[in-house]
Amino acid sequence: METDQLIIPKATAKRLPLYYRFIQNLYQSGKQRVSSAELSEAVKVDSATIRRDFSYFGALGKKGYGYNVQYLLSFFRKILNQDEITKVALIGVGNLGTALLKYNFTKNNNTKIVCAFDANQEKVDQKFGDITVYPMDSLEQILSTEEIQVVILTVPAPVAQLVTDRLAKTGIKGILNFTPARLTVPSNIRVHHIDLAVELQSFVYLIKHYSNEEVVVGD
Ligand SMILES: NC(=O)c1ccc[n+]([C@@H]2O[C@H](COP(=O)([O-])OP(=O)(O)OC[C@H]3O[C@@H](n4cnc5c(N)ncnc54)[C@H](O)[C@@H]3O)[C@@H](O)[C@H]2O)c1
């Protein structure tokens, strides 16, 4: 199946990395097939949803047999572009930015922070593993030469839009916005806003009202 032109619902797309990680583990443990019930138990998504999700990719499973693990793995690898590394830059090497640079998403082998930027001269030239912190003067040039597609924004809220306005003139495709600022961007750039305070608040609410059920965030 041609995966480049697949259009799938957002909720399905969000579950793909979950499926992928589990299938990868199955493959590594030598398992050759998996049923939707087993998948359901492992990723905590009901099996009807799994079957519907998988149906967007064509008939991947056989009745009474389940899904072929190796086939699923190569399918998800392709659809999630696991063979292609998406280069990420981080702007704002403060408390949060430093933590993210140190983490560097080692579990996701297809995304990698390759450079960082900060306005504070004292932070410039610092190294986090193989990531260097560059001055803001070199932002546009480095984003372009490194072919950065995604920027993680961890600057103080009052400067977030100013930095975003500069980013809007580069070739980046997305901003992962950790600041509380609501960003205005041109239509060719997608913004994903992450607010830990809101996540925590809604989680506490769910714990109080839906005890004993695991909740998949993003559903
Ligand atoms: N989303 C969340 O859950 C969450 C959690 C904590 C913090 N935050 C937000 O993340 C941001 C960073 O928080 P922090 O605690 O790491 O702050 P911080 O003050 O420790 O770090 C901010 C960094 O940005 C740099 N900076 C300032 N102006 C800049 C500019 N114009 N261009 C480039 N770099 C610039 C500073 O030099 C500093 O290194 C804030 O907006 C904060 O509200 C979000």
Automatic annotation (TrEMBL):
Function of the protein: Modulates transcription in response to changes in cellular NADH/NAD(+) redox state.
Quaternary context: Homodimer.
Gene Ontology molecular function: any one: DNA binding
UniProt protein name: Redox-sensing transcriptional repressor Rex
Entries under Gene3D superfamilies matching the protein: NAD(P)-binding Rossmann-like Domain (3.40.50.720), Winged helix-like DNA-binding domain superfamily/Winged helix DNA-binding domain (1.10.10.10)
Example GO biological process: negative regulation of DNA-templated transcription
Residue ranges constituting the CoA-binding domain according to the UniProt record: 81-182
Any one Gene Ontology cellular component term annotated for this protein: cytoplasm
Keywords: Cytoplasm, DNA-binding, NAD, Repressor, Transcription, Transcription regulation
Tagged with keyword ATP-binding: no
Compartments reported by the entry: Cytoplasm
DNA-binding region(s) from the entry: 18-57
Similarity field: Belongs to the transcriptional regulatory Rex family.
SMART domains reported in the protein's UniProt record: CoA_binding
Binding residue positions for NAD(+): 92-97
